[in-house]
Amino acid sequence: MHGRSNGLLGLNDNEPSNDYDLIDGTSNNQLDVLAEHWALNGECDVNQARDLTYRDDERCQEYFHNSDSPLRLCFNH
Questions:
Q1: Is 11 within 8 Å of 20 (Cβ atoms)?
Q2: Deepest in the core among 1, 5, 8, 21, taking most CB within 10 A?
Q3: What is the largest CA-CA distance in the chain?
Q4: Coiled coil: which residue ranges (predicted)?
Q5: For residue 77, what are the β-bridge partners?
Q6: Phi-psi region of 57 (alpha: psi -120 to 50; beta: other; left: phi over 0)
Q7: What is the reported pTM?
């Protein structure tokens, strides 16, 4: 199946440059266009991306910012 399939997740050929190509082979590099192209009935609302920040989350603060975090050695703060 390597390089011989075509689907929502690409051609399975280890080439990231064609992972967003459309069903008909049209070259594409935009995720929203890919999602709309693969919609089941064309009536799906387009999702609006929103930026979320971990800084507002108490648990993320605990893991990523506190000096006594068990993960502190993984981050340069």
A1: no
A2: 21
A3: 53
A4: none
A5: none
A6: beta
A7: 0.45
How do the domains of the chain map onto residue ranges?
Answer: 1-46, 49-77
Sign of CA dihedral 76, 56, 47, 6: positive
| Phi, psi values for residue 10, rounded to 5° | 105, -160
Tokens 């971990």 appear where?
54
pLDDT tens digits, 16-75: 888 888 888 889 988 889 888 887 775 667 677 777 665 567 877 777 778 888 887 777
Q: What burial letters (b/e) apply to 24-46, b meaning 16+ CB within 10 Å?
A: eeeeeeeeeebeebeeeeeeeee
Structure tokens at 16: 């990231």
